[in-house]
Amino acid sequence: MNHLTIQERAIIRQIQVKTNKKNVDNISRTDAYFSFFQKYPDIIWSFLASMVSRNGGWNMCDLQGSIFPQLITDLTRKQLFLTYERANWLIFHDVYPQLLVYHYSTKLNRQMFHLLPYFHVSTFIQKEWVRYWEENDKNRLTTSLIINEQNVIQTWANISSAFLSTTPYE
């Protein structure tokens, strides 16, 4: 981080603070995605994410509604809720810094995607943001973001599965 300018370090800190602030619950995440889309309608993925997040929130609420408690045990409902929550948290933690880097790129009128590695963003999507900046292919970026976030979920599922399948002292 020593080679970064003071401005770039400040941007990284601001993105970290804002991401943590907006990633506290599903309502905040949904609102953050939709607010971003309202400012940047060219980033179609943020609208899709707001809808998926909203639907995930409804599913989370349904688990406590009148039907599921009669059909599914408390433990299973809690596990399902935590699965929704963790997947949504992970996606937001990965993608919201990307969106904010794009925001700063437009604000400063120069691409700032060299900051993405500081948020542990995949090299795949780093390249796609640069490509979007240069080519403005909204559909390609949308597809790339969907692929990237599916990879985030799958990686987490694989790690969780491996962790849960091991027994202590193996």
Output the keywords:
170 residues, 0% strand, elongated, mainly alpha
> What is the tally of beta strands?
0
Give the tally of structural domains.
Answer: 1
- Distance N to C terminus: 39 Å
The arrangement of helices and strands along the chain is HHHHHHH
Instruction: Return residue spans where pLDDT drops below 50 for at least 5 consecutive residues.
Output: none
**Average pLDDT value?**
92
The rough form would be described as elongated
Oligomerization category of the chains in this entry? single chain
Over all CA atoms, what is the radius of gyration? 18 Å
> Percent of residues in beta strands?
under 5%
Number of helices: 7
Secondary-structure-based class equals mainly alpha
Q: What level of helicity do the residues show?
A: over 70%
* Largest pleated sheet: none
What's the helix and strand layout?
Layout: H1 6-22, H2 26-39, H3 44-62, H4 68-71, H5 74-108, H6 123-135, H7 138-165
Helix pairs in contact: 1-5, 2-3, 2-5, 3-5, 5-7, 6-7
What does this protein look like?
This protein is mainly α and 170 residues long. 76% of the residues lie in helices and 0% in strands. It has 7 helices and no strands. Helix 2 runs antiparallel to helix 3 and helix 2 packs parallel to helix 5. The longest helix has 35 residues.
In brief:
The protein is mostly helical and 170 residues long.
